Amino acid sequence: MTEQYYMPVKTISGRDCLKNSSDALKKYGDKALIICGYRSADINGAIGDATYALDSAKIEYEIYRGIDPNPTVEQVRAVSDIAINKRCDFILAIGGGSVIDAAKAVAILSTNSLTDDELFTLKDFDSVLPVIAVPTTAGTGSEVTQYSIITNVKKETKSFVVSDKIFPRIAYLDGKYMENLPHDTTVNTTIDALSHAIEGYLAVRSTSLGRVLALNSIRLIAPILKKMNQEETLTIQDRDELLYASMLAGIVISQSGTTAVHAVGYSLTYFKHVDHGRANGLLMPSYLEFLNIVRKDDISIILDALGMTTITEFRTLCFSLLETEKLTEEEIIKFSEIAINAGNIHNTEPKPTIDVLRIMLNDASGLN
Q: I need a surface site. Which of 66, 196, 275, 348 has the fewest CB within 10 A?
């Protein structure tokens, strides 16, 4: 079996790394478009560090505040128009996965005239604007992936933009931006990172190196999740470890992709507005139970990395940290019918039937 590994992202980590490594930005142009959410990047200090770095490097910039939690194609098109009109040379994305994913789509649309279908189906482009990523949550790992996940209203789900050209050029990792994250946000994003590591380990397209990184990520996340479950205050060192673990899990899925958990979870996010990480966490226990029928050795390895011996222990942790989501029978049928057609399903071994997806949704709803 042939395996490939490609990871072109330069990562710079440590306290104040953005301010202290501004020279790394100079090669990407004379003007940046900073994109972020509505207020968080100002509150956590990341905007101040970014503008300090750009000023130090004598790079001009525009700032766009207002990326939505689940950005649509329409929104990224509007932001790309700003990048074009302001003649920006690169994108500096500050935020969680939604912001970084949006930045990647903006980078493509700023240099390519594409229909929505072309955006989601083409994998190569003549050029894209460089993206610099400053993650302020530890969840998606988007700072080290070639994926941009955008809300696709036409298909009533989230859709992938995939291209090696949208790997960020630099990822600045500084846990200080997460110090004041709300508890729920920290839990949900941490569960998201954990789902990436677990799914990446189990995916059809998993790789030898990816499995090593996945287990490392799981081992870092597990004790911090238990600490959160006991409502203990996380230290700045905990935040740094979560950010590192999330980055590792991002590298894992950049090689392996995700599985049925994500396929089902997208409907919970699109239709029910369930946070992406929470959706994954509600689905993972029944997903592991399904795989455990034929993949006991793999599941045992994952449980060992979690410091657990049974899936029941994992279920107890997930459902202690996360509230179940009430679903009607009609919603369960609809969401499973959408998910069964997702590409992630084919990356799951054994491949689930629609009945298995319904069981997962029933479990997320607390009905099992």
A: 66
